Amino acid sequence: MTTIGVVDNRMSSLRWDRAYEARDPNVIAAARDFATEFLEHAQRTMRTRLDDRVIQDAQLVVSELVTNTSKYAPGPCELSLELAPGGIEVTVCDSNPIAPRPAPQDPDRVGRHGLEIAAALSEYLYTRRHEGGKSVHARIALS
Question: What's the DSSP call for residue 5?
Answer without folding.
Answer: E
